Structure formats: C-alpha cells, structure tokens
Amino acid sequence: MGGRVIEQFMWGFQHSFRSSVEFEVERAFEEIGFKTYARCILVGFEVTDGHKFPICVEQGDGLYKTEDFSDVQRLAVEKYRNNPDSSVLYSHPRVSKLRQESLMNRMRAEALEETLGSLEGQSERIFFASNSVQVGDYDVHVIIGTDKQAVARAPQISTTMSDRMPVLQSLVHAVIWEILGRAAKSLYLPEAGSDLSLGASTGEIVRTATERMLHTMMYCIHYWFASDFHLLMNQLSALPYEGREGAGRLVLAEADNSAIDVSVKLASPVDSRNILAIRKLLEGGGPTADVLSDGERIYGLGTVSPDYDPATESVFNVRFLRRGYWELSHAGTTLLAVRDGIPSLPKHVLDEKYLLDLCDRLFTESDGDVLVQAARAIGKHRHGAMLVISADAEGEAKRLSPQSWAVEPSLLSPSLLTQLTDMDGAVLLDPKGNCHAIGVILDGVAKGEGDPARGSRLNNTVRYLGSGRAATIVVVYSADGGIDVLPHLQRRVLRSEVNGAVAAYLALAPHRPPELERVNRLWDAVKSFRFYLSAEQCNALNDAREAIEEWRMETTQMRIEESPLVPDPKMDESYWLKENE
User: Helices then strands (H, E): number in the chain?
Assistant: First the structure.
C-alpha cells in the first residue's frame, strides 16, 4: 500500500490528529443525541518565513485552498484593534504581554470562523475555531464545522457574554468547545497527534462539557461559583425523601430580580450545598410556589412573574422529574436533560408538526389545534400516558368497552384531560377532539414488531396499529420521559427536492479527480432521501458511486463499502408534497 503524501506539511501526525478529532466530535454528538455531521479542519500559519506554503490546510479532502485564508491575518488585526480589551493595561508587563497575545490569537480564530463561513458553498455551515498552538514551524488552529441549522435548532439561550465572562449557549456549543480545548492542549504534548485519543472517554468529555455549560449559564443570574452545580443537582435528584423519589422544581434567580414573586422568605437562607435541607424544602413546593435559589443559597419559596421578559435570560428552572432524572430549562424551553448523571439534549419533546402532518394525511377532516392541545395536556402527567385519536372512535369505544369506559362524546378541557391521565389506560378521541372513552386498554396481536427495550405502552400501541384498525394516531408518553407519535411514517417531501439531490450527485460524481468532500456531502443528502428513490435513480446512483470507489482503490488502494441503494416497497404517491405547498 502506498503511503499518503502530505503536500501542505506542518507535522507528520497532522492527518491522524485531524481524523481523531473529527471522530471524537461525531461520537460526542451521538452521545448527546445531536444528529448531524461534523468536519475537522486544521489551518496553520507559518511562524517564520521561507516555507513553500505560508498557510497550510489539513482537511482530508480538497475543499478549501490556501488562498481562501490569505486575508485572515489582516482581518484578525482589524478585529484586535476594534476590541476594547486591546487597550486594557495590566500592572505586570509579562501578564500584559500574555493577555494581548492571547487576545490576538482569539481574534485570528474568529477571523477564520468568519472567513470559512463566507466562502462559496459554505453558507449552510457554522465553524468553531480554537486558539492556535505552535507545532513545528506553524501556529495551528483546530476548527470544527457542522450544520448551521442543526445548531440553531438545538435548545439554547442567546446570551454569549455576561459581565465580560463567556457563556456557553447550549450543550452542543459546550461539547464542541470542550473538544476544541482538549485538542488544542494535546498539541502541546511531545509527538503531537500521535495519540489518537483526547485523554478522556466520550462520556467524560460530555460530562465535563455539561459542567462548564452549567457553570457559565449561572453567570446569567450573577452567580460566579457554580463549578459543582452539576454534581449538586445529581445528588438532589438521587436523594429520596421518606422513601419517595425526588420531585419538585428549583427556580434560579437573584433574590432582587423583579420577575420573582417571593411568597415565603427564609429568615436564614439555606446553603446550596445542604442537600438534605434542600430536598426537604422541595417537598414544600408545588403548583403555587417553587423553591427559590440564587445559586449560592435557598432564600424562599415563590413564583416567576407572568411579566418576566425571557430576553433577559435571568431566570432558570431545574425540574426534578423522578429519581436520578432532572432538567434545566429557561422560559419553557428545556436546555438539558440528565438521567443518572448522564447528560443529553432533551428527547421528550412533542413533535407537534408531525402530529399535524399525520392528522392531515390520515383523516379527511380534523381539528389539528384541538388535538395538539389535547396531546400537550396529557403530557403533563405524573407517569406515562396515552392519547388515541381514531377515525372510528365511536366504534372503538364500543368494541373496547369491556376494558374501558365509553362516555358521551364531548370536548374535554385540557385540565380535565391531564387529570384523566392519572388513571391507567388511554383517552380516546375522534379527529375533531371529542372524547369517546377513558381508561382504554389497547389490544392487538404480536407480529414480530415493536421494541423489547421499550415499555408496554409503546409495544401495545404498535400491536394495535398493526391489527388493521381504522386510521388511528397514538401519542405515547413513556414513564421514562420519551414521547412517540405513532404511526412512524416517512415525512412527505417535494419530488423536486429529491430529484435535485440526485441530479447534483450524478453531475459531480464523474469529475476526476473527484472533489471528495463535496461528493461525500451530496451522497449524504441522497441517502437522506433513500426511501423516496425510484429503481432507476437507485441504479444510476449505485453505478456512479461504484465508479468513485474504483477510482479510490486505484489511487489509494482503499475503498469504502456501503450497501447499495434499493427502492422501498412502501413508497407511494402519498409521500409527495404538492409543489406549491
């Protein structure tokens, strides 16, 4: 096998280092439930003159050229001069020199981020660049690029600085910066990049990122010492009270925040490290008052005013749902879920858009707004719950009546629907939202479908939907916090969107040498539409990909094997959107 020749050489392990960072980002994204791609790029600037390439790029495939970065240094100097910290004076010359060098380094990293995002074809990406580390004769920046829209959809706050202190906006941002920090530090080691790990497991990287995210978010309430916040919340959620599992809500805000209405003010505030006392106080919280904390102390019980302006991002909530499980949220948006000490993005979010789409596809007439409101209401459960929406709700209420209670059809208030979930069984509605039965136990025959790792609610629903009933939608809230809207149908898409992705790949694939980075991205786009592909499209795409792999084998003695694309027998015209929708 021929060796890989590094044309833009910075140091010998640059390729393996870049690949290992990219791999770790992908694993960390998977760990937190963030489903999108990640790319790692290294950009190095020569420290002394005389090199063939004053700027070197290590990227795996040749998407970026050195001339793309020719203006970065000038832009960095401009950003430095415009930064107010560049004029800050320090009493010690050595401290001043180090601070200003670090600031200049940071400005070049930001210039790289902006430059990459401005390049042609890169508008859909967002880039994060570390400060540089000198490796050999180059100052090397580690850069992570990923899907801009995916990052924007991650639950997050908008604050990035609080009293000149940086704030991590989301778990995704925290994970990216944690990996960049570890990658940069590893470049200081002898034989930089020879060790393919970042000195920690993926789980440890995510946990450390979570700790830093929580620490910095507490800056928003002007609490600066929350380094052990993650640990304290884990301890609170794991601690039972008189045999009962943890529950309750903690409101985090300054005591003098005008948005906080204090109902009970403690004469002697409780230290936030007094876990036993806080656990007992949580028992006093409820619908009319929550436990109030400024991060350092518990100062009373009260509520958040309806006039609270979410744009201030000065009030956060921690909700303890069950033993070992807690969430951090802001203004109704859950930012983080932690189960048994393992952090992730929140998974139990009702997909209202998909629910409305199913209503439109399965029912001739329905009241989507009423049904979404009903689905939200049953989600306010203290355990698992189910909502069944049937085109033949009247008939199903009668058929299932031996194991449920049929009722006179009527619209129920959201509060009553929430109350009814305290009993076992589902609530049965028709497509207009009228309730026909309560305490419904679904039946059905096992056909080798379902998921043995999931609970009885989900598996009973799968069996029921597979038994040939009238058009039915079931919203399942599992006791573990998961939410499923069934049946799981492929989303409807535009035929032109699929055809466009296929055409783009087939147009670029024959180029030799192929632009592998772009080809790979286009192939990922095609694979995301694999359900909708015709037999003719599958054959053309498979042939084009095989030609690329033959070229790769001839050139590098390597090839990437993937299962060929095949048409899906379930695909039919119902999965196409009208082009004017």
Answer: 16, 23
